[in-house]
Specification:
Structural class: mainly alpha
Strand content: 5-15%
Helix content: 40-55%
Order of helices and strands: HEEHEEHHHEHHH
Low-confidence stretches: 154-167
Distance between the termini: 30 Å
Mean pLDDT: 82
Largest sheet: 3 strands, parallel
Number of strands: 5
Oligomer: single chain
Number of helices: 8
Strand order of the largest sheet: 1-3-5
């Protein structure tokens, strides 16, 4: 946990634009801890983000070493781990579309979509001052949660909404 904390602190102070892209699965403490500190976080459509891998999470929830496929599916459906779920929870900034059938069906189109997204975001970020980018990173980490906690942060979120604007 100390190394994850040190990594986050170093990332928050890094003076250059940081774009984080999830292209498959984002899991475990390290990935979940270091990815959100970027200036822009996006996921390919069809990607997932979770703290515990779905089978492990189902194992914990159902108190079984080998949960049934239905239990794993139910767990996945309640984790809110899809790229769209993460966007709805305001944990990421964008979902990058992939061709019908997934990235493996037309990898060249997927790469083009990814390239275009990165180019657009990089152009925006490079136009911002270092101070603005670093301040937005701080705000992102300070307010990183998938839901509003009762009585916590409601004033801060409203007061700093312009700083937290999605790119």
């Amino acid at each position: 946990s100390r190394r994850i904390s040190d990594s986050i602190a170093a990332g928050l102070e890094y003076p250059h634009p940081v774009i984080s892209i999830v292209i498959g699965g984002l899991g475990s403490g390290g990935g979940m801890a270091t990815t959100p500190m970027g200036d822009h976080v996006a996921m390919l459509e069809g990607s997932m983000a979770f703290v515990a891998e779905p089978v492990s999470a189902a194992s914990i929830l159902y108190n079984k070493a080998s949960p049934d496929p239905e239990e794993v599916e139910s767990t996945i459906n309640t984790m809110r781990a899809t790229a769209q779920d993460q966007l709805d929870l305001k944990l990421i900034d964008a979902v990058i579309p992939v061709p019908t059938g997934g990235a493996e069906v037309n990898p060249l189109q997927s790469v083009e979509n990814l390239r275009d997204h990165i180019a657009q975001v990089a152009h925006t970020l490079l136009g911002q001052s270092n101070w603005r980018r670093l301040r937005r990173r701080d705000f992102r980490i300070e307010n990183l949660r998938g839901f509003q906690l009762k009585g916590v942060g409601s004033e801060t979120t409203q007061d700093n909404s312009a700083e937290a604007g999605i790119i």
